[in-house]
Structures are given as structure tokens and as C-alpha cells.
Design a protein that fits this description.
single chain, 175 residues, alpha/beta, Rossmann fold, 3-stranded antiparallel sheet, 3 helices, globular
Length: 175
């Protein structure tokens, strides 16, 4: 597969400003309380790392991996849990951090999965949102940017495991 970067959709500066805004919203919502941040691997790791550096609350971080894509660029419709969390979230304030909400299938699956653990609060934070692609009724409480239905890379998001290291979000053309 040939991959070519088409346009920069969101600059490094815009990303960093939005991360600070989201961190401030989370701080206000959980003022003086501890938070467990669960980053959905692999795509959200850069965003989650930047986000937690700006949150002044006590933060515990853990990781989960689930996918509805496999090795494809289109969702299979079935979500598979690849790695579960290690921390106990019962009675805790939990923020699930995702890189992008597309179909919503993965986060819908994770929402049900986390509710079984009985957290005090469960909220979702996504850097990017494509609401027109949604296949389930799901909204994140914290949204960075709504973007058009384009294939994108950068800031942790990959195409065939490449381009995660870009400091900006770009649209790509694949052949």
C-alpha cells in the first residue's frame, strides 16, 4: 500500500492548545479528586501522555487495547479485547482517553466493559471525532476536534503502523 500525506488538518500548535483546554475541563469537573486515566492503545498514547502532564489532579494511568479493525482500514463490526487494565477502578473517577471516535464500536464495547467494574464516574475524552461515521449512539464528554471523514495520521495515529511520530494530524491518500 502506498501512503501519501495530503494536507495538514491540525497543526502541532493547535493540538497542544486543545490538549491544555481539555485538561482544564477535566480538572474543573474533578476538582480535588483523584482520576484514573485509561489510554486506549495504540493510537491515544501520545495524546494521553500530553494530556496527563497538564492535569493537576492526582492521576493514575493504565492502558487497554481493543480493536474493531484488525489489520484493516474499515471496521469489522466486532470488537476484540487485546489487553485489559491492571488497576482496580471500582469506586474511582475514570477518564477513557481515545485518539479518534469513528464508528463508536470500540468505545461502546469498552463502556460496557468498564461499567462492570462499577466506577464512581466514567467519562470519555477523544482527541478527534467523526460523528457522521457513528454506528452506535455514543458521545464523548471531552472532544478535541470534529474532523471530516478522511483517513488521517499523526500524533499517535497510524496507517500500517507508520506516521505515529508526526507532531501534527494530516490527511493521507492510500493507493
Amino acid at each position: 500500500m502506498n501512503i501519501e500525506i495530503k494536507d495538514t488538518l491540525i497543526s502541532e500548535e493547535q493540538l497542544q492548545e486543545k490538549v491544555k483546554e481539555l485538561a482544564l475541563q477535566i480538572e474543573r469537573d474533578f476538582e480535588g479528586e483523584e482520576i484514573v486515566v485509561i489510554a486506549v492503545l495504540k493510537g491515544s498514547f501520545v495524546f494521553a501522555a500530553d494530556l496527563i502532564r497538564h492535569i493537576k489532579n492526582d492521576v493514575t494511568i493504565d492502558f487497554i487495547s481493543a480493536s474493531s479493525y484488525g489489520n484493516q482500514t474499515e471496521t469489522t463490526g466486532k470488537v476484540k479485547l487485546l489487553k485489559d487494565i491492571d488497576v482496580n477502578i471500582t469506586g474511582k473517577n475514570v477518564i477513557v482517553v481515545e485518539d479518534i471516535i469513528d464508528s463508536g464500536l470500540t468505545l461502546h464495547f469498552l463502556k460496557d466493559h468498564f461499567f462492570m467494574h462499577k466506577p464512581k464516574a466514567l467519562k470519555f475524552c477523544t482527541l478527534l471525532d467523526k460523528p457522521e461515521r457513528r454506528k452506535v449512539d455514543l458521545k464523548a464528554e471531552y472532544v478535541g476536534f470534529q474532523i471530516p471523514d478522511e483517513f488521517i495520521v499523526g500524533y499517535g495515529i497510524d496507517c500500517a503502523e507508520k506516521y505515529r511520530n508526526l507532531p501534527f494530524i494530516a490527511s493521507v491518500v492510500t493507493e
